[in-house]
Amino acid sequence: MRDLIRKMSRANPLWGAPHIVGELAKIGIRLRKSTVAKYMSRRRKPPSTTWRAFLKNHVKDVMAVDFFVVPTVRNQVLFVFLVLAHHRRRVLHFNVTANPTARWTAQQVVEAFPWTDPPKYLLRDRDKIYGDSFRSRVTGMGFEEVLTAARSPWQNPFVERLIGSIRRECLDHVIVFNEMHLRRILRFYFRYYHEFQVHQSLEMDCPEPREVHSVDRGRVVEIPEIGGLHHHYERAAA
Q: Whole-model pTM?
């Protein structure tokens, strides 16, 4: 078991101890965080209790949106737009552009909900990209916009944490060539994120619930994800 923990730590240097605990649980091995904490650990400051209470009470009704930028090998700046459902931390939609506009941004929200009713609240910052055409479109869709305070990214914590994870766990370790290349990288990452990455906030499960393999199912196999940048572990019959 110690050898397996070391193997996971070496193969996935970006993981914290809780991530390893959750991954082990998916193959029928239950250990305390303290058992693996000596390998890696990370602490995060919690947001204010008042704002946290709002997010917790309305978790099923909140969708967050945000942009982040990615430079390419040719010094072009690309903008990535994310639509994140707070419930189960699912990425509902993403897209990449070199020239974002309010109209383009509004269309991305529409594409996130082609067949289903959207959540009640749309959480965003006060960036000027969310102009009149954006506000008009989302209001027509039935959203109630919730704006964070100026220069307070911590008030949109779930999407900010996701952006940090995307950078630390993926984009900081690859070279982006163009828009098409970045979309492909993010598709691979979000597949891993939804189906295999365990989350502390989801009680060490994935956004798409993942099966737990019993110890008697077979030997542990290591399966690479995102070109070997990460791995997930399963039990397979010999």
A: 0.79
